[in-house]
Amino acid sequence: MLTSDKCLSPHVPTAQHGHTRLRWHKPYRTLVRTRPVAWTCYCQATVYELCEGGGQAFLRRTVQLDGKPEVHETSLRSIRTTKAIWTELLSGRAR
Is residue 81 part of a domain? Predict the structure, then answer.
């Protein structure tokens, strides 16, 4: 989880050997109200967000390429489980 002097949010490190592969899906709006509660640095091509709403949570991945971002999300899980996955993502143990 590297950050430079100019960046306030964490950078996602290179995935570790044997990391967990997350299943990413096209966004589906099953929660009416969601909000990002944590995110990685926007200076990277891929930005991750931890989103919560209605007692559930998911991760959002945005790949910023050629002016048209591609957004994918994990499935809904409990906030506790999703926060554990978020920690794995920030440590390189999940991608």
Answer: yes
- Rounded distance, CA 65 to CA 71, Å? 11
32-66 pLDDT, tens digit each: 789 999 999 988 899 999 999 989 999 999 998 88
Domain that holds residue 41: 35-91
- Outline where DSSP puts E strands in the chain: 35-39, 46-53, 56-65, 68-73, 77-78
Measured in whole angstroms, how far is the alpha carbon of residue 11 from the centre of its chain? 11
- Residue identified by tokens 């996602």 is 12
65 lies in some domain: yes
Classify residue 1: in a domain, yes or no. no
Domain count, the chain: 1
Buried b (16+ CB within 10 A) or exposed e, 4-42: eeeeeebebeeeeeeeeebeeeeeeeebeebeeeeebbe
